[in-house]
Amino acid sequence: MWIDTHCHLNAPFLSGQLDSVMDQAQKRGVSHIVIPAIDKASFADVSRIAHQYPNCSYALGIHPIYVPDASESDLAALENAVQAAMADPRFVAIGEIGLDFYLPERKTPDAKSKQEYFFAMQLKIAKRYDLPVLLHTLRSVDTVLSFLKRYGIKRGIAHAFNGSIQQALGYINQGLKISFCGTLTYDRAQQRRKLATELPIEAIVVETDSPDLPPYWKAKGENSPTELPQIAEMVAQLRDITPEELAKATTQNAISAIPRLKPLI
Ligand SMILES: [Zn+2]
In Å, what is the CA distance from 199 to each residue of 126, 148, 160, 192, 222? Predict the structure, then answer.
């Protein structure tokens, strides 16, 4: 059994065919799916989907790519939503949050400081409610870690991670888990494969980030949680362990990264 620790089931490609996606994923051995929010407008959607199916949970947060359109009132809305959701067993984390310095327009001084402000405020919410964080670290691996240290965040997952071994160990020493997805199925993904092979087994989890980040056998934007077992099998092969061993370890690791998952698994 596998836990997809990061899947955008509320994205149109998946939300339009949820019944069949959930049915197929379950048949393939995906026993639980964590759905992170991306902006204020998605808070209600991720919560609704997580309640619609027995094997889902959700996180609340503002994704760095949506920060340019967000305002202070969105942070207040997040805090209110989190406060209300603490009584909801399906609510498990703050996410998806982080920093994204991939495109030039995302790293102008103004764009950067707005992203960093929103990230810092959301880390404070995570700290206040003692919740783990689901992190986006695109071209921002070192900066995100420095924020985790500054705000005393010691639990969560660095999703779709693509840093060096040293950078990954920095996150692991801080208490975080490192997550792998379909990107490592490509032959050119040497760095990710090295990480998947060499990091301590206690430190890794798996995800699809679907419908984004497809494995090589799926078209762009058409990824789904159904692909998780095949992606994870590649990780097991790299580590020379059985898929069952990896499934057991990554399930335990996901629960340790996101304690509120425990009663749901
Ligand atoms: Zn994501």
Answer: 26, 20, 14, 10, 29
Amino acid at 100: D
pLDDT band at 180 (very low <50, low <70, confident <90, very high): very high
Ligand 1 centroid to 73 CA: how many Å?
A: 23
Neighbours of ion ligand 1 (CB under 5 A): 96, 209
CA of 57 to the centre of ligand 1 (A): 15
What value does the mean pLDDT take over residues 9-33? 96
User: At residue 225, what is the residue type?
Assistant: P
Q: What is the chain's mean pLDDT, rounded?
A: 97
Write the class of the CATH domain 2-264.
alpha beta
Domain ranges, ordered by start, for the chain: 2-264
- The pLDDT value recorded for residue 242 is 98
